[in-house]
Amino acid sequence: xxxxxxxxxxxxxxxxxxxxxxxxxxxxxxxxxxxxxxxxxxxxxxxxxxxxxxxxxxxxxxxxxxxxxxxxxxxxxxxxxxxxxxxxxxxxxxxxxxxxxxxxxxxxxxxxxxxxxxxxxxxxxxxxxxxxxxxxxxxxxxxxxxxxxxxxxxxxxxxxxxxxxxxxxxxxxxxxxxxxxxxxxxxxxxxxxxxxxxxxxxxxxxxxxxxxxxxxxxxxxxxxxxxxxxxxxxxxxxxxxxxxxxxxxxxxxxxxxxxxxxxxxxxxxxxxxxxxxxx
Length: 279
Prior knowledge:
Blueprint: E1 4-8, E2 31-35, E3 39-40, E4 43-44, E5 77-79, E6 104-106, H1 107-122, E7 127-131, H2 136-149, E8 171-176, H3 192-200, E9 206-210, H4 215-218, E10 223-229, H5 232-240, H6 245-261, H7 266-269
Antiparallel strand pairs: 1-2, 3-4, 5-6, 7-8, 8-10, 9-10
């Protein structure tokens, strides 16, 4: 949220004997930038985004330190239709899928993804959805299969159950046509599609969830195909400031602590104070 508003201050002197003269007409017509103090119940909120610009559901964090409950699932959730070209040359508004498997996403995320994919097509970028929502149980199976394959070692490619961004229904693995059947690795970052996604994602409410220079913070390997829906205002802030979602939450929690320390009402911020399912 922009903390500044532009106002035009017009000051007129009254009861002057020569009000009509240019010298004695006092009028300030310049634009003056005044800081607008963002407050909730008269307590200042210092975070760059207003609470109204952040949906606590859309910005939820899922990682090994902030686990989601087993029963946690996106609501509402929608199935993503496969894109089909109709007889008249139009399409059904679906997405290109990397496989025939049914994929689901949280409703707002799914709608934003459709718009993003359509925008890509207008610029010659064809994208494919490779993975979407995964339940806690599905993630549990995938994780332990990976451990078995790697002699019990967690190599950072598959999150443990409760820690997966996919369980939110807001995480999407997106690839190009040539990568539909390939094993995912960092080389995907060199593709035209990966570059376009990183450049345009924020305008549709998505962020690159696991950036290359944030692996020590996310504790997840660089995944240039994994995007996460957080809503447009948050996405713009994160991408413009080169943050990962963990850093965003760290900043947000600091602002919440300051707000409460200054006498702010807990009811304004409680929904943003996420707690791990382990606690």
